[in-house]
Design a protein that fits this description.
heterodimer, A: 113 residues, mainly alpha, B: 228 residues
Chain lengths: 113, 228
């Protein structure tokens, strides 16, 4: 339970900071960065936090289903642009993947790994 | 009586959990294939039920919000794997940072430019910018920016499935397929779904993919609101 409390504490802190600073970065992201800084200073992950992370991680997709189901309200938009959207998503992967892999492998082809 | 049940918020929370569970079983049944992630099955099943019963999304959300509420804590929780990856990164931090920044920047820039000039609908263009970020972050950032959360989720999932399908043969064909390059690229371009594909390829691929996905999400969550 302490783990969940830590998450909520940082979430509340993140949301508070977001509204105080009028920041365009979402509160939960600020909360995550604050927690990351906390972990770096502390030097290790508290047991309760690893525990809650192990429990909640597999459920993560479940929490995204409700908002995703909102796709049913976008039927017209998808009917008009569905094909274009699929093409854009497929095509845009190619240059990004090549750039990323080329940088990661540059100068050590056939070398270590 | 059925109508009564269909207007009970708890029924929809239950149905969402049931659909996700069916998705998980189906996923395992098909040998953990990256092409039918449990979340996709879950979304399809719930949408079909809504369509069939004629219940509105708003009514559904009265129950769905209980699960949706957990999105915030779960995003904060991403700090835990991120902290672990910082140690892994130390050795090659410059190469990894460059690959992640330029790789994800390229794919997003191409997608946003194509959406802008081809479709020219601002909410779509904005939403497209979050397509390479893991779903919980994409939904959160997209709504903050004036995009559409539901579309963000669809874009991310479809991008993930395409990436898992295209990236391994693409990188093999140009011989950029050492395990680190393959893993990192899957994580950058296909996030969680790419990571489950990377897991099929090997442990090193999976570790690099998980790291890349978390770093990409963090980078984009901070940068996109400032740029878009």
């Amino acid at each position: 339970m302490t783990g969940l409390l830590i998450l909520l504490l940082f979430l509340v802190a993140g949301n508070l900071l977001q509204s105080q600073l009028d920041s365009p970065v979402p509160g939960s992201i600020i909360g995550m960065l604050l927690l990351l800084v906390f972990l770096i200073f502390r030097g290790r992950t508290p047991e309760s936090l690893s525990q809650v992370s192990k429990t909640l991680s597999p459920l993560l997709p479940l929490f995204i289903i409700p908002v995703s189901v909102g796709i049913v309200t976008q039927k017209e938009l998808l009917a008009d642009n569905g094909v274009a959207l699929l093409v854009i998503m497929a095509v845009s992967i190619i240059p990004g993947a090549l750039v990323c892999a080329a940088i990661m492998q540059a100068g050590r082809r056939g070398g270590d790994s | 009586m059925i109508q009564n049940m269909l207007h009970m918020p708890l029924f929809w929370a239950m149905l969402t959990i049931a659909s996700f569970t069916v998705g998980q079983h189906l996923y395992r049944l098909l040998g953990n294939t990256a092409f039918l992630p449990p979340i996709l099955t879950g979304i399809i099943l719930v949408s079909v039920v809504l369509e069939y019963t004629g219940i509105s999304f708003d009514t559904y959300m009265e129950g769905g919000q209980y699960l949706h509420l957990m999105l915030g804590p779960v995003v904060v929780m991403l700090a835990v794997p991120l902290y672990q990856f910082i140690h892994v990164m130390k050795k090659e931090w410059l190469r990894i940072s460059l690959a992640i920044t330029l790789g994800s920047g390229t794919t997003v820039a191409v997608a946003v430019a194509m959406a802008h000039f081809w479709i020219g609908n601002d909410p779509i263009t904005i939403t497209m910018s979050t397509k390479s970020v893991t779903t919980p972050v994409a939904v959160t950032v997209s709504e903050q920016l004036g995009g559409v959360g539901a579309l963000a989720s669809a874009f991310v999932i479809i991008t993930g499935v395409f990436g898992a399908l295209m990236i391994p043969p693409l990188l093999k064909s140009v011989k950029l397929d050492d395990p680190k390059a393959m893993g990192l690229t899957l994580g950058v371009c296909a996030h969680a779904i790419g990571t489950s594909r990377a897991l099929e390829l090997g442990n090193q691929q999976a570790a690099y993919s998980a790291m890349a996905m978390t770093l990409t999400a963090t980078l984009h969550a901070v940068l996109l609101p400032l740029v878009m």
